[in-house]
Amino acid sequence: MIVSRQVLDGIRGALESAYPHEGCGFLLGERDGDVHVRDHLFAANDREAAAAATRYLITPEDFRAATREADARQLEIVGVYHSHPDVPPRPSAFDRDHAWPWYQYLIVSVVQGRVDDMRAWELKDDRSGFDEREVRVTGNGSARRHAP
User: Fold this and answer.
1) Domain that holds residue 84
2) Per residue in 49-58, pLDDT tens?
3) What is the pLDDT of residues 85-137, one digit of tens each?
4) pLDDT band with cut points at 50, 70 and 90 for residue 140
5) Catalytic residues, which ones?
6) CATH number for position 22
7) How do residues 8-40 score in pLDDT, each as one tens digit?
C-alpha cells in the first residue's frame, strides 16, 4: 500500500476523534500491481455506543455513497480502515469474518486517544487469515516503509 503523509494525517485525525470508540472509513485509490491510496472517506461507526468500543459497522448506505464518491473522482474503493482502541493493530476473528479478500485493511492502534501504530492487511482468498502488507508512506520528497 502506498499512501501519502497527507492522507494518513487525515485518517489519524478522524480516528483520534472517534476514540474511545472504533473509527472507520474507506480508502480510495487505484490498483496497478500496488495499491495506491489517494484519499479517504470517514464513515460513521453505526454500532451502538457499548459495542462501538470494540466493533465498527459501516452501513450499506454509507458504502453506496462512498462508491458514488469514488466513481465521481475516477477512483475505486481499495480498502477500509478502522481503529483498535488501546490494542495492537492486528486483525481480530471478527475482522476476518467480515473482511473481503480483494480489499486492503488499514488497522490503526489508538492508545489513550493518540495513534500509536498502524498495519495493513489483506484477507487470504481462502479466508483462513490475513497476510500483512507493506505500508509505504510518501510525502515531502521522502518515503518511509512500514514493512510486514
Assistant:
1) 2-146
2) 888 889 999 9
3) 999 999 999 999 999 988 999 999 999 999 999 999 999 999 999 999 999 99
4) low
5) 22
6) 3.40.140.10
7) 999 999 999 999 999 999 999 999 989 999 999
Read off the C-alpha cell for 117: 501504530
Using an 8 Å Cβ cutoff, are 85 and 107 in contact?
A: no
How many Å apart are CA 38 and CA 142, to the nearest integer? Answer: 17
**Amino acid at residue number 53:** A
What is the number of structural domains in the chain? 1
CA 83 to chain centre: 8
What distance, in Å, lies between the first and last C-alpha atoms of the chain?
11
* The three-state (H, E, C) secondary structure of the chain, written as one string: CEEEHHHHHHHHHHHHHHCCCCCEEEEEEEECCCEEEEEEEEECCCCCHHHHCCCCCCCHHHHHHHHHHHHHCCCEEEEEEEEEECCCCCCCHHHHHHCCCCCEEEEEEEECCEEEEEEEEEECCCCCCEEEECEEEEECCEEEEECC
pLDDT at 49: 80
> Dihedral angle at the C-alpha atoms of 55, 87, 103, 124, nearest 10 degrees?
-110
